[in-house]
Amino acid sequence: MKLGFVGLGIMGSAMAANLVKAGFEVTVWNRTPGKCAPLAAQGAKIAATPREVAEAADIVIAMMATPQAVEAARDGADGILAGLRPGKGYVDMSTIDVETSLESARLAREKGAMFLEGPVAGSRKPAEDGLLTIMAAGDRMLYDQALPALEKMGKKLLFLGEVGNGARMKLANNLVMGGMMAAFSEGMALAARSGLDLAQLLEVLDAGAMTNPMFRLKGEAVAANGHFPAAFPLKHMQKDLRLAIALAEQVGQPLFATASVNELFKEAVASGLGDSDFAAVSRVVRK
Ligand code: NAP
Q1: What is the span of the domain harbouring residue 272?
Q2: Mean pLDDT per 10-residue interval, the chain, length 287 residues
Q3: Domain CATH for 44
Q4: Quick one: which of 38, 47, 41 has its CA closest to 13?
Q5: Both 12 and 34 in a single domain?
Q6: What's the gap in Å between 232 CA and the centre of ligand 1?
Q7: Is 118 in the pocket of ligand 1 (CB under 6 A)?
Q8: Cα Rg for the chain, rounded, in angstroms?
Q9: Is pTM beyond 0.70 here?
Q10: Catalytic residue among 45, 152, 170, 218
Q11: Ligand 1 contacts CB of residue 205 (under 6 A)
Q12: Is residue 222 domain-shared with residue 90, that is, in the same domain?
């Protein structure tokens, strides 16, 4: 099976590398061409456009930043769709809204191709280790065909049915993550301002029902209140909160806490922290 990979950011570069390592023939493209070089050194072929990737591959996988980035790589004379043919597959693993995903499915199927969405949970390290959670939905036949590749990127794979359910599930997941990080930041800030030892608060949290890998992973950096190199860029967390709120509007679900959490992340983006890790939101709280 020949694979294509479009979008070699933090996640895409690690996911594509696992496919190359597993022995798949992989053709890659990225808007900033320099990011293709490490993949090429491992054995991937570089294409000049997303269209060329889709032409070279049986299944083309995309991992883009935003709905706009998905459209930029998908549409136009050089886009993925232009290279799709009947029988090929298009798997979009970006975290985006339901509407963009449905449109990708419609356009791919118009070409006789199959479509699958597969947003992921897990950050830089799980992506490198092939330990992501993949929330797939769409054409079941493509899911089955893509399984050997998906299994090289993820440890937990779910098939959620119709296109849109992957996006919905991913947004519900990230809403929880954003809220947890906001509450964690406020607890740490309150402890710091009250003169407590933050290492001891981390110990208390870790010993109780709130223990979780995220607090353990980010705790030291939040306590130090220094720099936050991006594993999950803060601007993407804010995008996910915005998309979750838009989904909630559509289905009539109030999100009292998430609305506030979104304002906090918006403030962090406005403070220039968009390219830092999402844990840098704690800096806004600690100010
Ligand atoms: P990233 O490092 O910012 O990479 C984003 C990718 O999108 C890059 O390849 C970038 O190209 C491309 N891109 C952005 N705008 C574009 C445009 N207008 N036209 C063409 N390409 C464009 O992001 P990431 O962390 O890998 O995340 C990718 C997706 O996965 C996002 O939807 C994110 O929410 C989701 N996600 C991320 C994590 C995480 O922990 N990082 C975890 C789960 C899910 P350039 O290289 O040229 O900028």
Answers
A1: 168-285
A2: 98 98 98 98 98 98 98 98 98 98 98 98 97 98 98 98 98 98 98 98 98 97 96 98 98 98 98 98 96
A3: 3.40.50.720
A4: 38
A5: yes
A6: 10
A7: no
A8: 20
A9: yes
A10: 170
A11: no
A12: no
SS3 283: helix
Distance of CA 34 to the CA centre of its chain: 21
For residue 207, the number of C-alpha atoms closer than 13 Å in the C-beta half-sphere is: 6
Residues 74 and 9 in one domain: yes
On whether both 27 and 60 belong to a single domain, the answer is yes
Does ligand 1 have an atom closer than 6 angstroms to the CB of 262?
no
- For the record, the structure tokens of 109 come out as 């199927």
Query: Which pLDDT score is estimated for 287?
Result: 86
Q: What beta strand segments (E) does 119-205 contain? A: 120-121, 132-138, 154-159
Catalytic site includes residue 2: no
Same domain, 102 and 236: no
CA of 143 relative to ligand 1 center, distance in Å: 22
Report the first-to-last Cα separation within the chain, whole angstroms.
52
